[in-house]
Amino acid sequence: AKRAGNGIHVFYSQEMNQRSLELLKLESDLRRAVERNELSLHFQPQLALANGSIRGAEVLLRWNRPGVGPVSPAQFIPVAEETGLIASIGEWVIDATCRQIAAWRAAGLPQVRFAVNLSARQFSANLPQAILNTLARYAVPADALELEITESMLMSGTEEVLVMMQELGDAGIHLSLDDFGTGYSSLSYLKRLPIDTLKIDRSFVHGIPDDADNSAIARAIIGLAKNLRLTVIAEGVETVEQLAFLEAAGCDEIQGFYFSRPLPADEFAALLRRHSV
Ligand code: C2E
Ligand code: CA
Ligand code: CA
Ligand code: CA
């Protein structure tokens, strides 16, 4: 496969197989997804264990692909990263999130925080300013926004990425370290960056409390977070047993199917309203 100037893959092999064709089609469809308004946001509540309140939501991208139906971001985000489309898609996510936050605030909904996933490939010199401009355009305060970054992003990142994270943190945007524990050890970054929250990866939540190793890892991450005075949230919580273990271990927040799946905007708004009265 060779890369043409416009970023579209051109395959010279005789054995252009079904998979390559599908990937090519996926890419060209994805290229049009933003302008055709096929992307939407889902919101998965994050619950504070201290009082059971909804303290925020993770914003999860959805693509309703014509003729196919909903496509998982796990499938198309890697393609978007590979092709550079992540820049415009990422921009759309931040814009749509801020627009939604502003609308919900205007409608009198409880003012919670919204966590957007950032991709390493999304980083460019003007990203911090672009995010701050978007917040300003919708008059959304910086602390209504949280950015989820990953360890691998920090490890592969240049000094420039670290400086950008500093800038965003200093502006009052919350930063959370996603999939914590799955990447290379990044403990030094916990000191260098204005990280607010550690997110225990779903793979460690799986099987607790019966899985002794995962239980130990979850406990250790919670302990680390406490000692560094960071908030700690567990993702992928599906059972009441997991919830009970995490609560007893001192975890601050949970997110997962146990409480709610990611919801379309109107359903999340209704839940937030119901839950806060
Ligand atoms: P992630 O950041 O780790 O997001 C959490 C994923 O776990 C979501 O999958 C969510 O639906 C799923 N999940 C939540 N609770 C549970 C649970 O209790 N059990 C199980 N089995 N799964 C649960 P989703 O929405 O398919 O997203 C997949 C990945 O795509 C995300 O993983 C994230 O890395 C990426 N992604 C999603 N939206 C965006 C976006 O706007 N920008 C970027 N760059 N990446 C995104
Ligand atoms: Ca995430
Ligand atoms: Ca901070
Ligand atoms: Ca995650």
UniProtKB/TrEMBL annotation:
<feature type="domain" description="EAL">
    <location>
        <begin position="23"/>
        <end position="276"/>
    </location>
</feature>
<protein>
    <submittedName>
        <fullName>Diguanylate cyclase (GGDEF)-like protein/PAS domain S-box-containing protein</fullName>
    </submittedName>
</protein>
